[in-house]
Amino acid sequence: MWVGDELRQVRAGAWEARLAAARAGAEAAADRSGHHKAAARHRNLAASYSALHDEYRERERVFAGVMADRADWETATRAQRHLAVAADAELRRRHPDQRFTPLRSAEPHAITDAQRAELTLTARQPIAEASQWIKNLTAGRRTFAERLADRQNMMIPSEDPDYGGLGQAFPSWTGSSTGAILQPPKPVIRPSARVLERVVERDADMEAAD
User: Rounded distance, CA 124 to CA 103, Å?
Assistant: First the structure.
C-alpha cells in the first residue's frame, strides 16, 4: 500500500509537536519565579505535546515499515509485472480485432480523507487509540513478510528427483534497462570497396612480414 502522504503527515506532526513541547518547557522554566500557575500550565502543555510527539513517532514507525515493504514488493515482482505488461501488449498487437479485459492493478484502496483526518492530533485532548485501519497495516506487515519469504524461497523443481532445484521460481529484478523487449534486427552495414582494399593490403603486408 502507498502511504507516502500519511508518512509525511505524521512526520510533520511529530516535528511540530517536538518544537511546541520545547517551547512550552522553556516558558515553564521562565515562569518559575512567582508565576506558579502559569508555569504549571506550561508544564502540562509541554507534557501534552510530548505525548503527541511519541504517538506521532509510533504511527511514523508503522507507515515507514509499510513503505519499506512496498519497496521490497516492487523489487521482488518487477520482472514478472514487466513481462505481464509486455505479454498483454503483444497479445493485443497480434489480435487487434479481439477485446481483452484490461490489466487491473492489485493496489489496495487508498486511504480516505476521513482516515487521514484521524492522523491529526490535538494538544490537551485525550489521545485516541490507533484506528483499526492502522492496526490492520501492522498485522498485514507480518502476513506480507511471510508471503515474501515463501516467494523468495520457492525453487523450480527438476525432473530428476535426485537433482537439486533449477533456481528461483521468481528471481528478483536484476536489470534496469528501459529498452523494448522485442528488438528489431541490427542493420547489416557493408564495408565500402576502399575499406576492403585496405584490409587486403594489410593482410598481404602481414604475410610478407612473416
Answer: 49
